[in-house]
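FAQ: What does the model actually see?

It sees only this:
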Amino acid sequence: MCKRFLLATVMLLGSFCMKISAQEALPPGELTLENAIALGIKNNFDVQQSELDMQSSKILWRQAQLNRLPDLNAFIGHGVQQGRSIDPFTNSYINQTLRYANYNASSNTPIFAGLSLHNQVKQQSLAYEASRLDLQQSKDNLTLNVILGYLDILSLEDQLLALENQYELSRQQVIRLETLDSSGAAKPYELSDLKGAMAGNEIAIINGRNNVETAKINLCQLLNVTYSKNMTIQKISPEQFLVPYAETSEQVYSTALQEFAMIRAAYLRKKSAEKWVKATVGMKFPTIGFNAQAGSPISSSANNQNFINSTIVETQDYVIVNGGNSYVYKEQNNFYNWKPSYGNQLRNNISTSFSINLNIPLFNAGVAHNRTKNAKILLESRKITETNIRTRLQQNIEQAYLNMTTAAGRHKTLLEQLAAFEESFRAADIRFNEGVVTSVDYLTVKNRRDASEINLIIARYDYVLRTKILDYYQGRNR
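And it is asked to produce this:
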């Protein structure tokens, strides 16, 4: 029983490892933001699914175009019939085993269909354009998520660097106090306070490193690539983005109405639904079509005759001449009977027909009427969807713009706060080294300065993140 369990466990782990190894590996070297976006678009499942949906929509559009062309169909049938039947060549009854075949070809050309086919082409064309925008929207969504994940790593790495610098400062103070303590010049509790602060810095570094690696794992999962501990990403100086945002929320919304793929896709789907309503109305009109057919039947009972000669033969009829019977003679044509070959019948039995057909829909159990009603309901649904997307877009942009301005104000305030705390810490460090202030006062000032530094890093990247969200709505991250 134990062996079976171990075997099942090994097989399960092997299957899991195979799935992991199926992921693409990270490219060698430093990962840039551009490479990360390209890699994500290539591997992302949502983007791949949107690509397939677009291809399917394109096929439907092409099919709608082809529906306006004539069709061409061929039919071939072979069979055996026994017993009493009608000879297809003499139209007389026969009682024998009959082998037969039929070769037929037909073509139908739509001439007029109430503009239904024309509107279906327009409908599918608009639906295809909407699916292309859905694909673009999937790419835009992924691009934004990759940018946010990338910035998250940079922010956490900068925070980790700040934590390491803070730890180094605490370590230097501990070394200094240990030297003083060995000569009896330092207060024991001050050394303990500094060692405790240094231990707190070490814990913060451990947590910071974990946060960095977690963010890298999250980015790898987003890119659908295998995580590597050696993964490094290219640094981007956030200062290059720390400029006032040029557009107002109204300008952002105005641009988004033209550039945001989801808005344009919703509009096209509404127009597609309008064309579908017209197409269903057109299905209620009479249709005119041209039909052409050609066929050639073949039968084993077929029999051909060739003329040989004419002879005079005596018949059973007679006339009375001088009281006696005189038999009547007549001319008789003599023929040679032979079975026509398969190919000969195929060539000689061809028949064709041509017709123009008018189909008038009189009653179809309400199918056409209800089809149009459903099409109108679909149109109203598309209108509601478009309005809802526009409303939510405006609300999201207003919220995103508010978050951006708040982040800008927070960043400016934290800059001023850190400058003030840096000055306070510089003075406290000098006085602590001179023994004027206690370790409690020193650590209080240091902790405020350290927290302000971390908060400034977070605020800096938060502002950049908020601007990227506004750029996303305007299609600038492509």
